[in-house]
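Side project, low priority. Logging it here so it doesn't get lost.
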Amino acid sequence: MKAQIIVNKENKEIICTEFGKGKQHDFKIFKKTNTVIEPGIELQGDRGYQGVVKFHSNSKTPVKKLKKKALSKEDKAFNRDLSSSRVVIEHVIGRLKVFRILSERYRNRRKRFNLRLNLIAGIYNYELNLN
């Protein structure tokens, strides 16, 4: 099972969760779900979301290295800045991995994966608002 999590970077709150059955590519899950994101909101994704610019113009993904060609200093700086701003999102994903639904093989009914993922996200958001 593969999960996609959309996080608000300002308050670290989980906004939306989606999942794909089996081994699916991240971008394929994004296209399948048809998640509507306002044009004014900046979307930051990892390398799995290359090409998301076609669906959301205000998005940033790391620049990939071409075959037999090194990245320029500007591209390396851009990737470094993007990964340093995405670290907040990665920390949220790390907090969800404590529940082991994302970090290990899911061995229960597939129909209930989305429900359980949403419940865990709700627990995380509730705990976040308590502090």
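Brief comment: The longest helix spans residues 73-96.
Revisit when time allows.
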